[in-house]
Amino acid sequence: MAMIFRLLILLTLLIPAPLMAQQTNIVPRLVAEGPAPADGGKVELALVMETAPGWHGYWLNPGDAGLPLQASWDLPEGAELFELRYPTPVAFEGAGLINYVYKDTHAILATLTVPPTDRGVLRVSGDLRWLACTDKICVPEKGNVALAIPVGDGASRQTEFDEYRKRLPRPLAGDTSFEMAGDTVRIAVPLPASTPVGKPTLFLAENGIIDYAARQEFRRVGDQLVATLQRRGDQQTDALSGVIDIGEGQGLAFEASPGDVPTGGKLVGGLGMEAVLLAMLGALAGGLFLNLMPCVFPILAMKAMHLAKAGGREVEAKRDALGYTLGAVLGTAALGGLLLAIRAGGTAAGWAFQLQDPRTVFLLTLLAGAITMNLLGLFRLPVLAGEVKASGSVSTGALAALVATPCAGPFLGAALGTALILPVAGGIAVFAALGLGLAIPFLLIGFVPFLRERLPAPGPWMVKLQRWLAIPMGATLVGALWLLWRLTGDQGLLLALAALALLALLLWLSKRSVALGWTALAGVVALAVGGAILLPDRPSAENRAPDFAEVWSPAKVEAARAEGRPVFVYFTADWCLSCKANEKVAIDRDGTLEAFEAANVAVLVADWTDGDAEITRFLDARERAGVPLYLWYAPGAAEPEELPQILTPDMLVSRAQSFAR
């Protein structure tokens, strides 16, 4: 009955189709990555489906309703077109149905093999049928695509195709098993425990097996991610395949066979109110501990001194404490909301995400420098001035939230990690709790008379303490300079040091007169903006290589071979379970590394975690669908030896010892 109901809904959606037969809502076009090789070989094709705003097309399994793309190809004689490769879809709810769709323009890839030919061009065409839908109507559409592929020479669209390949799910190495029992289907996907998982979604390629609208449950069981799905009917199968989206648009493809699926484990992606409250408590405690960090403690101490200087009057103390709290809570909540928005856009980011941007680090360096100079008495930073005003208190709280982002402390990692996989409201609540924890000491001073009365009387000791407080804030400044150097190199560090010297001059001038103060303020703004613009580009990152290896590139392989050195290259990814197991058991161990050093082996690592385009092309050229891949280049050998996907230490040590010096 449920299936009949769904079909009736689909028919209802299709009723407007005849009225819209001339309207094209998804426009297909066929493109080739480059020319076809004259001596025969392969060329990559992309069927680009340009989708109008508000419309969507369907994955190979459309879900509750819809139709997948249907294609009939006309190929040159002797040519063969391999299976279409679809990007990771999204789940879409419409009319009470769950469908697997593409809401934007997307590309479906396929590999064309061609025989040797002396023809100038090869012509490929196809008749296509597809369904284009909005949340209200569906329109069956059709069209043809044609392409003339030059043979031998022609323009390359490699950059465009690299972007298309990034959106394809990456194949999982390792065995995936499933079992069907009663009304559930359980699938165990191999995934290292260290791989972060947001809110996963599993897309099953086989239609009619599961209830698409039912809740999917995921649990971590060691190095496996176990999905429990609601079964539809009693259909049996010997194989299942599909894609699991583990968050941030990262899809992993799997093929499963019947087998044992573990039970138990920790629930993933389905956090309830209890988890939200625990995360908020953790963030509260973490914010409290942040006050002891060198970047925050000076601000708190300065505000306490200013409160003591104001005489500890109850009304002013409470107003100042509430203003400071409001600024801290709004500051951390705003940073958290921005972080969640960035992650929702498909970019991986974490707490202190802004510190990955050298321009933000440059501005933070100037701010830390200004606070340090304020504590040394060079000038008075307005938000740390002695007057107790509501606006100044809010600004100080927001300032504390900003300078707290480089710091870490107890409870903070787990709490903020949970915030990133909660619904938006819950995540922002956790970040706001962090700001509240940051403000707790000042709230206590403002609202607890016993503590406020214990504030020491104003005196010369305040000036001495203020100078001492410059030490931890100066340490924060040094840390910001170090981070800027890591992000931009020597040129960026020299620019920041010059900017700090000019900043000190401008701030000193601001004390001379009101007119000079306004001039100095304009100079500081110009300095901040100009310095951020002039920062050099980030240097090439080598941070993906462990200490014993270098980042892989074909040029580095050739350079090492030209020196007569053996070369070991391992292709890996953070989400590859067998990769991580091999690294722990066979590669990153003392015996192996000592043998490599004795034989002068060049060790190169190719990290495919983010679908690096150059690595993808290399794997394609070797007809490998994924990682791990281990290559041993012996001196003088024409081709590398491809090692098994399951390594043992002896495999590597014995090869290295045969070339020991």
Low-confidence parts lasting 5 or more residues at pLDDT below 50?
Answer: 1-22, 346-350
Radius of gyration: 31 Å
Count of folded domains: 4
Q: Give the N-to-C terminal Cα separation.
A: 75 Å
Describe the structure.
With 661 residues, the protein is α+β, with helices and mostly antiparallel strands. It folds into 4 domains: 2-167, Thiol:disulfide interchange protein DsbD, N-terminal domain (Immunoglobulin-like, Sandwich), CATH 2.60.40; 171-268, Immunoglobulin-like (Sandwich), CATH 2.60.40; 273-534, no CATH class; 550-657, Glutaredoxin, CATH 3.40.30. Strands 11, 12, 13, 14, 15, 16, 17, 18 and 19 form a 9-stranded mixed sheet that branches. A 5-stranded mixed sheet has the order 20-22-21-23-24, with helices on one face. A 4-stranded antiparallel sheet has the order 1-2-8-5, covered by helices on one side.
Based on the model shown, name its key terms.
Immunoglobulin-like; 661 residues; 5-stranded mixed β-sheet; single chain; globular; 4 domains; alpha+beta; 9-stranded mixed β-sheet; 22% strand; 24 strands
Topology at a glance:
Blueprint: H1 2-14, E1 26-32, E2 41-51, E3 57-63, E4 70-74, E5 80-81, E6 90-94, E7 97-102, E8 106-114, E9 121-133, E10 138-150, H2 158-166, E11 170-171, E12 176-181, E13 184-190, E14 201-204, E15 217-221, E16 224-230, E17 240-245, E18 251-258, E19 266-268, H3 273-290, H4 297-309, H5 314-344, H6 358-375, H7 390-404, H8 412-419, H9 424-447, H10 449-453, H11 461-509, H12 514-534, E20 550-551, H13 554-562, E21 567-572, H14 577-587, H15 590-598, E22 602-607, H16 613-621, E23 629-633, E24 641-643, H17 649-657
Parallel strand pairs: 11-18, 12-18, 20-22, 21-22
Antiparallel strand pairs: 1-2, 2-8, 3-7, 4-9, 5-8, 6-7, 9-10, 12-13, 13-16, 14-17, 15-16, 15-19, 17-18, 21-23, 23-24
